[in-house]
Amino acid sequence: MQVARLHGAKDIRIAEEPPPPPPAPGEITLRVKTVGICGSDLHMYETGRIGYTVARQPFVLGHEFMGEVAAVGAGALDGQHQPLQAGQRVAVEPAVPCWRCELCEHGHPNLCPNHYFYGLYPQDGALRERMTVSARNCFPMPDALGDETGPLLETLGVALHAIDLSKIRLASTVAVLGAGPVGLLITRLARLAGAARIFAFDKFAWRVRLAKAWGATHVYNVDDCEPAAVLRDLTGGRGVDVAIEAAWADHSVQQAADMARPGGRLVLVGIPPDDRLRLQHSVARRKGLTILMSRRMKHTYPRAIKLAAAGTVKLAELVSHRYALSEVARAYARNAAYEEGINKVIVRVPR
Ligand SMILES: [Zn+2]
Ligand SMILES: [Zn+2]
């Protein structure tokens, strides 16, 4: 079967490899159909590392994915504890927690210290024709959702978790920094959560336009203005109740803190390239900000599927580019270059 491995920074190669062995109890074999490219994948692609995880061997990227169940191991129950069957289309939550530790027991599987994650070194991801996955991580997709929306359920899960942490209240004010796929979904969900005014910021003109389409009431290009000053003017000097950082977590963290009102909440979703959080202590302290680090997601797939299947969140509209697995190196290069109009890139795996 075809497998795409990252051999080092900006070096993805496709090779023929043997298919996976039959699934063990509690596992399935997945015939992978679609895989999304995420900002965190781009970090790994550009530098061969993310945070303190360094890729030491060639490995397979891809943590946003769906496919068809090809073979079912004994007692394979899905994420809702229902039996899985061959032929079912499933989206896969990429984080596999141990379900036994203190954090898992207390309802925080996203913080499990014993977890592994498909597509994060050393665990191989989905840029391959077949893979073995934990059945419990599989969520059957309703017919209303096309194959391209499967990978985006992971992105929506990240946005849902950030919104859960934000505790947005009806008629409140929200700033969203970054209008990539996660920022756009956060914007849409903030609207659904009842925010009255949503201020969105990005540095790319086409993304600023998208933010408006996804529900922001005010949109700005950060290169054309002083974002915190603009926001101070618009809120009569008060600032916003909730500021959500969903960019690259560089100076945007400081900007988000500058935008929050005293006693406000700051939710950090972006991942900085150099693994450093830059924030002026006195700003956060004097405002008494509540700072929340959004770590992936928890229990979000069933809700994400409901929102997408009902059309409340139109996931397919985020897809801007499609590539075959054989073109995956080009797909990554173009996404990393942030070519005009690029939003969510989907890799279609079947030959
Ligand atoms: Zn992702
Ligand atoms: Zn655990």
Throw out a few tags for this protein.
alpha/beta, binds zinc ion, globular, six-stranded parallel sheet, Rossmann fold, seven-stranded mixed sheet, 10 helices, Quinone Oxidoreductase, Chain A, domain 1, 2 domains, 351 residues
Short summary:
The protein has 351 residues and is α/β, with parallel strands linked by helices.
Ligands present: zinc ion
Helix percent band:
25-40%
**What is the CATH class of the largest domain?**
Alpha Beta
The fraction of residues assigned to DSSP E strands is 25-35%
Terminal CA distance: 10 Å
Low-pLDDT stretches: none
| The CATH homologous superfamily of the largest domain | Medium-chain alcohol dehydrogenases, catalytic domain
**SSE order in H/E notation?**
EEEHEEEEEHEEEHEHEHEHEHEHEHEHE
- Secondary structure category: alpha/beta
Give a quick account of the main beta sheet: strands, pairing sense, barrel closure: 7 strands, mixed
In total, the number of strands is: 19
Using the 3D structure, state the CATH architecture of the largest domain.
Alpha-Beta Complex
What is the count of DSSP helices, taking H or I runs of 4+ residues? 10
Return the CATH topology of the largest domain: Quinone Oxidoreductase, Chain A, domain 1
Q: On the 0-100 scale, what is the average pLDDT?
A: 95
List the domain count as a whole number: 2
Using only C-alpha atoms, the radius of gyration works out to 20 Å
**Which geometry do the CA atoms define?**
globular
